Amino acid sequence: MEHLEQYLGGIPNGSFILVSYDQYSTGWKFALEMFKREVAEGRFGVFVNTILPMSKVFYRAHVAGLDMDRYGMKGNLVVVNLFPERCNKPYIYDVGKVTEETLVPKFHSVMQEVETLYDLRNAVGVLATIDGLYELMGEQALKRFIMATAIATDKLTRKYNYHTILIEKYEILPKPLHAWLVSMSEYYLLTRGMISEEGYSETLAILKSPIEGFEPKVYVSKRKSEPWGKRT
Questions:
Q1: Distance between CA 78 and CA 73 in Å, rounded?
Q2: What is the 3-state secondary structure (H, E, C) of 53-77?
Q3: Average of per-residue pLDDT across 210-231
């Protein structure tokens, strides 16, 4: 996979990069690969987990080639954990039980703690996932969270170089909410998978960018079908 900026043509400070995927695509994996590449090349990583136990987060990150524990123990990555569990790792910050009213203040209280303990001068965040937060908290709480995050990101960019990758399974969200998220984001990437008798194909479309002269780009990956029962 090429570097993120080679796909997008440069990333202005404070950008939101929305990566949407459908039930047949691996867009979530692509988004984690982008995050992993950024961290591996020296950016500090802030991973926000919404609905999965950390054991499952570690596994899915590993599928994308991201060893979260290795980067976390080295001080190159933190996890802000919205899932209601207690984790005994120094780089995992549990937000604890939240409601629609306490989500934003509790989250940003943890982020303030992270800012005092780590160097965020060159950082990348990822929110995994938007649809998970929607199912957990509902539309209005999600919107308040995204707007509050946008305001906090704007403040961060006065001192740091920081952008955020937002991951969503768009089929779960209401269309107006999905459209609002696209409008809030500087970049919009869409992945779709298709299964047929000929095999499997996946399309990555880069549909939105603030870069002057940008034109949408489409990439297609195809894998031929295999005979049923063939051993690999």
A1: 9
A2: CHHHHHHHHHHCCCCHHHHHHCCCE
A3: 85
| Burial state string for 52-85 with b = 16 or more CB within 10 A and e = fewer than 16 | bebeebbeebeebebbbbebbeeebbbbbbbbee
Closest CA to 143 of 94, 90, 87, 104: 104
Q: Which of 1-10, 66-75, 159-168, 189-198 has the lowest mean pLDDT?
A: 1-10
The C-alpha atoms of residue 139 and residue 115 are separated, in whole angstroms, by 28
The per-residue pLDDT for 11 is: 86
Q: Label residue 136 exposed, middle or buried (CB < 10 Å: 0-12, 13-18, 19+).
A: middle
Counting DSSP H helices and E strands in the chain, the numbers are 8, 9
Residue type for position 66 = L
- From the list 167, 134, 178, 129, the residue with the least C-alpha distance to 30 is 167
CB 194 within 8 A of CB 220: no
Beta partners for residue 48, in sequence order:
80, 127
CA–CA separation, 188 and 186 (whole Å): 7
The pTM assigned to this predicted structure is: 0.92
- Pair type for strands 217-224 and 199-208: antiparallel
